[in-house]
Amino acid sequence: MSLIDRRRAWLPWLLLGLFALATLTGPQRPELAAWWRWVWAGGDARAPLEALVLTELYLPRWQVALLIGAALGSAGCLLQRLTANPLASPGLLGLNQGAALGLVCLLVSPWPFTPMGAWLAAVVGAAVAMLLVFGIVRLATGGLAIDGLLLFGALFGTLLGALVTLVLLIDQHALDVIRFWLAGSLAQVVPSQIGPLALVVIPTLAVALLVSRPLEILETGRDTAASLGVDPRLVLLGVAALVLLLTAAAVAVSGPILFAGLVVPHMARFWLGDRLWRQLLGSMLLGALLLLTADALILRLDDQDRLPPSLALSLMGVPWFLWLVRRRYLAC
């Protein structure tokens, strides 16, 4: 068995094993027999409370984790390949901070704070942040330089983060409502969010796979891409729009989950290689599995569900990066 075959074999199975270990062990966890009865009997009528816990507590949360993990992993992959920066992540464009500001503005406004209203406010806030970043870069540089987008995105994100902090210091009620969301958590997920999230994420992921070929051509250089009939500006705007949709949809539901968009693309490249469509597919799958595993580990460590999944992601991601850096250093 070749090295690439071994990579394909153990990495996803490792995450699935960690997920199973965290889910099926420990106190207050659904027994394996309960899952078996629910899958094969559609929810055992003799145990309605058991079926209610599975269908209303665990399954919606896991479905959202799969969608958000796939979205953030793919967004990070697209952004890293677009910018040729291995440290790029969706938060660098100010999307997380823009979504947070949109949600805070809804909280202090007279409009009712509903799950759908919060989702729309976060998406609109992220979209406005990206449009402003693109507009500022356009005015400052006369074009859409990739390094300019990252620089102005980071600066503008810092400004938006300061505005969010200012509003929360003024309004204590807003801080109480949004604090779990700002930490990045799946604890507040409700089943009604699954439909809109899937309606945005799944088609966007399909389009991302279609865009992978022009983006891969653009990586050879703007002149080469233009000679092959690929418009660099159109590819840039298209990929940015995809990153916006994926990130905004995910952040609107769970808040800013750190490390997912940064770590997952590197894991996917290690698993499936450098081809963009392979790395993108790997980022979808590994992102979904990684966030699912991280959330299960958090529930395993804290039954009261107070810790954010980013904590488990950092515990898994930091050692991975250290090992990856050491591996590349020894290869030089």
Order of helices and strands: HHHHHHHHHHHHH
Task: Could you tell me the CATH topology label.
Answer: ABC transporter involved in vitamin B12 uptake, BtuC
* Assembly level: single chain
Number of domains: 1
CATH homologous superfamily heading: ABC transporter involved in vitamin B12 uptake, BtuC
How would a textbook summarize the main sheet? none
How far the N terminus sits from the C terminus, by CA atoms, comes to 25 Å
Instruction: Give the CATH class.
Output: Mainly Alpha
Q: How much β-strand is present in the residues? A: under 5%
CATH architecture: Orthogonal Bundle
- What overall form do the CA principal axes indicate? globular
Helix run count:
13
Q: Residue-averaged pLDDT, rounded?
A: 80
